[in-house]
From TrEMBL:
<dbReference type="InterPro" id="IPR002423">
    <property type="entry name" value="Cpn60/GroEL/TCP-1"/>
</dbReference>
<dbReference type="InterPro" id="IPR053374">
    <property type="entry name" value="TCP-1_chaperonin"/>
</dbReference>
<protein>
    <submittedName>
        <fullName>Chaperonin Cpn60/TCP-1</fullName>
    </submittedName>
</protein>
<dbReference type="InterPro" id="IPR027409">
    <property type="entry name" value="GroEL-like_apical_dom_sf"/>
</dbReference>
<keyword id="KW-0547">Nucleotide-binding</keyword>
<dbReference type="GO" id="GO:0140662">
    <property type="term" value="F:ATP-dependent protein folding chaperone"/>
</dbReference>
<comment type="similarity">
    <text>Belongs to the TCP-1 chaperonin family.</text>
</comment>
<dbReference type="GO" id="GO:0051082">
    <property type="term" value="F:unfolded protein binding"/>
</dbReference>
<dbReference type="InterPro" id="IPR027413">
    <property type="entry name" value="GROEL-like_equatorial_sf"/>
</dbReference>
<dbReference type="InterPro" id="IPR054827">
    <property type="entry name" value="thermosome_alpha"/>
</dbReference>
<dbReference type="Pfam" id="PF00118">
    <property type="entry name" value="Cpn60_TCP1"/>
</dbReference>
<feature type="region of interest" description="Disordered">
    <location>
        <begin position="1"/>
        <end position="25"/>
    </location>
</feature>
<dbReference type="InterPro" id="IPR002194">
    <property type="entry name" value="Chaperonin_TCP-1_CS"/>
</dbReference>
<keyword id="KW-0067">ATP-binding</keyword>
<dbReference type="GO" id="GO:0016887">
    <property type="term" value="F:ATP hydrolysis activity"/>
</dbReference>
<keyword id="KW-0143">Chaperone</keyword>
<dbReference type="InterPro" id="IPR027410">
    <property type="entry name" value="TCP-1-like_intermed_sf"/>
</dbReference>
């Protein structure tokens, strides 16, 4: 090669190496964590996010905030993925996971400045995470996870979030009832619980519908608004005059021929209508269109029809009622009918909704959320979905731990105790992991107006004295006490997932020492 330089990267590529790369990535991760830190806890603050089109989102949900932010830095995107993973797996704890990950990065930065190698930090963090998981197991309550505990889990999840005029306590009862409705011997079918929002009333009008709610209106104004003990047909059929695929024209030479054509068309339309009316179906849902003449005839027969359904809505109705989906009218039999205690069409201002309630196979349930503005119902929807997820998680695992920072205090204490038996520089990383976990109680203290250092000292002292110590917010009073006594509890799996996902993201970022970016 004669000493000739070899160019592997294009001239437009940018490359950052060594400490500069580590510092850039860590700084980006810390910035993301800091953006959601103030939302943590019952006194957490909200964020207003405005996109380029002027759409406004007001929330303190960590996953929503991070997803709405226009984040470009690849390392920062990893923390967004932490929140997404936390949300997908257990439904809550997204802010906690992101904040812990950011502080693990901050501690790692200090260790790197002390010439601790990134590999040593990673090994120490993974060892500390294993100790943390053991500590969580030790914090699991011995009480049976019954409805009272589940309500506490739901209420703890929603406290501090936007719930309109409703209290977290009243919403918790609705959430637990919804999850119990979809519980079976096989577990909890969380997907069978949906949240449907409707603007136009106080949030106090939020209710649980034992069935499904879809955005559909009756095919004819004269149709009955409500049908009880309904026999339901679900069709993929166009109910109207059949047309050929070819673009053909027919010449009509006389009035008699025109009348014959009209009579034939009317006969075909009436045939469809009579077939449906005689089938015994009280309510018909179809994914295709229904001719106005057929709708009018069926309205006179007292049949309630909804047409033009989307595929997902049709599948929901089949699941909720036990109907068989039929693709040809001549194939429709009584055995294909589903059942519901009640089907009703209801108008809410400019919106028309169909309610399908109860029935022989009614496995679905809907939380029908009301609110005066779009921002209220959106935030209420997020809060309820998080609560539904954590209640389902707690019910399936049967394990809950104290909230209010008590679990993080216990984890950090155990890690520090175990760190004494770890040799070499890895001990520094393990201890730093414990220090990073202190961000949770410190942030809770800050957000409630308390001194974070004094609060952390008091929490540690109470824990070392054998008490279960969390930072309890009760009205205007903030005290250090046992969270279980105040019903402040979290599913153990939420804490486990937060530790695991935060550790994974932090160690991945710390190991990067070379960033190559193409222009």
């Amino acid at each position: 090669m004669g000493g000739q330089p070899m160019f592997i990267l294009s001239e437009d590529s940018q490359r950052t190496q060594g400490r500069d790369a580590q510092s850039s990535n860590i700084m980006a991760g810390k910035a993301v964590a800091e953006s959601v830190r103030t939302t943590l806890g019952p006194r957490g603050m909200d964020k207003m996010l405005v996109d380029s089109g002027g759409e406004v989102v007001i929330t303190n949900d960590g996953a929503t905030i991070l997803n709405e932010m226009d984040i470009e830095h690849p390392a920062a995107q990893m923390l967004v993925e932490v929140a997404d993973s936390q949300e997908e797996e257990v439904g809550d704890g997204t802010t906690t996971a992101a904040v812990i990950a950011g502080n693990l990065l901050g501690e790692a930065e200090d260790l790197i400045e002390q010439d601790v190698h990134a590999t040593t930090i990673v090994e120490g963090y993974h060892e500390a995470a294993e100790i943390a998981l053991e500590a969580i197991d030790e914090q699991v309550s011995e009480e049976t996870v019954d409805d009272d505990v589940l309500k506490q889990v739901a209420e703890s999840s929603m406290t501090g979030k936007g719930t309109g005029g409703l209290t977290a306590e009243s919403l918790a009862e609705t959430v637990v009832e919804a999850i119990r409705h979809v519980e079976s011997d096989a577990g909890v079918e969380r997907d069978n619980v949906t949240v449907h929002t409707q603007i136009g009333a106080s949030s106090n009008a939020t209710e649980l519908v034992p069935g499904i709610v879809i955005d559909e209106e009756a095919a004819h104004d004269s149709m009955p608004g409500e049908v009880e003990d309904a026999s339901i047909a679900v069709l993929d059929v166009e109910l109207g005059v059949r047309t050929g695929e070819l673009d053909a024209e027919y010449a009509i030479d006389s009035i008699d021929q025109l009348n014959q054509a009209i009579d034939a068309e009317e006969s075909e339309v009436r045939g469809y209508a009579e077939t449906l009316a005689e089938s015994g179906a009280d309510v018909v849902f179809t994914t295709d269109d229904v001719d106005d003449r057929i709708s009018s005839f069926l309205a006179k027969e007292g049949v309630l029809v909804f047409d033009g359904l989307g595929d997902s809505d049709a599948r929901q109705i089949v699941s909720a009622t036990g109907a068989n989906r039929v693709g040809a009218l001549e194939d429709l039999e009584e055995s294909d009918f589903g059942a519901a205690d009640r089907v009703r069409a209801q108008n809410y201002g400019d919106d028309d909704l169909a309610f399908v309630e109860g029935g022989a196979a009614a496995e679905a349930v809907t939380v029908f959320v009301r609110g005066g503005t779009e921002h209220v119902v959106d935030e209420l929807e997020r809060a309820i979905n998080d609560a539904l997820d954590v209640v389902a998680t707690a019910l399936e695992s049967g394990e809950v731990v104290p909230g209010a920072g008590a679990t993080e205090i216990a984890i950090a204490d155990k890690i520090r105790s175990e760190a004494a038996g770890i040799e070499g520089r890895k001990q520094l990383a393990v201890t730093s992991f414990a220090d990073a976990l202190d961000v949770v109680p410190r942030t809770l203290a800050t957000n409630t107006g308390q001194d974070p250092i004094d609060t952390l000292v008091d929490l540690r002292a109470a824990h070392e004295g054998g008490d279960r110590a969390g930072l309890i917010t009760d009205g205007e009073t903030v005290t250090i006490d046992d969270p279980f006594e105040y019903g402040v509890v979290d599913p153990a799996d939420v804490k486990r997932e937060a530790i695991e996902s935060a550790t994974e993201a932090a160690t991945m970022i710390v190991r990067i020492d070379d960033v190559i970016a193409a222009e």
